[in-house]
Amino acid sequence: MLISSIEPTLNADPWRYQQHLEIWVLIIGLIVAFVYAIRIVGPKVVPSGEVISRKQIRIFSLMIVLLLISTDWPLHDIAEEYLYSMHMLQHTILTYIIPPLALLAIPEWLFRLLVGRGRTYRVIRFLTRPVIAAVTYNAVLLITHIPALVNRSAAGGPLHYSLHVLLVASALMLWTPICGPAKEWRMSYGAMMVYLFCTSLVPSIPAGWLTFAEGSVYNHYDTPVRVWGMSVLSDQQLAGGIMKLGGAVFLWALIITIFFTRFMKGFFGEQSYISKESSDSSQ
Fold first, then answer.
1. pTM for the whole structure
2. Domain boundaries, the chain
């Protein structure tokens, strides 16, 4: 009787297929725009030389696949209606994976063509400066975990999509100093490590709050139908774990990668040179 009294469109069948035409319009629009830019605009802007690399095409394709997976059925619907942990997984993909892939897929000539050299250039340059970008992204991250806002946005509608746009936009700002198409906008590798370290601290706040909460934080996800039999508290704890792993650990992995590939590589090369020089002099 309890389940039958629930609104059918919300809880009757968690795995029912739901069509999201707006997502397909977005994805098809991105593909058409990208192909048009590469096939039609590119040869005119770059008459001699490589318009786009095979690696960038593969990165763009991966970005499109992940965008479809994270915003369409079933992940989007489970995330929106049933499990906050899936909501967190969705946001992790939309902020930590898709934005850097998008930036890496854009050829430098296309980026410069889009931003120009006038007001648009100056505005985007200001918004993507490391301090501005980091503060904006982390502020958006914290605001989008306010219970009242989550409960209201999870019900669907313009607010839900607006928050997604805001998250992705702030994430693009965050990642531009790391892997943006304009190389002069990128930070030095040492600055990148400090930047990523500072950014990794903020996700720990809502992650810890979700992990150790004793009751339901978001009433919207306290529904009688439990996907995979997961309780509200287990769902929240998993969400905290995803945020911790998807945020802090992922950023720390990047820091370690930068350290060993950019700094230790040069150190070992220098040591090898010194050892060889010592060996030659001893002979």
1. 0.87
2. 20-222+230-276
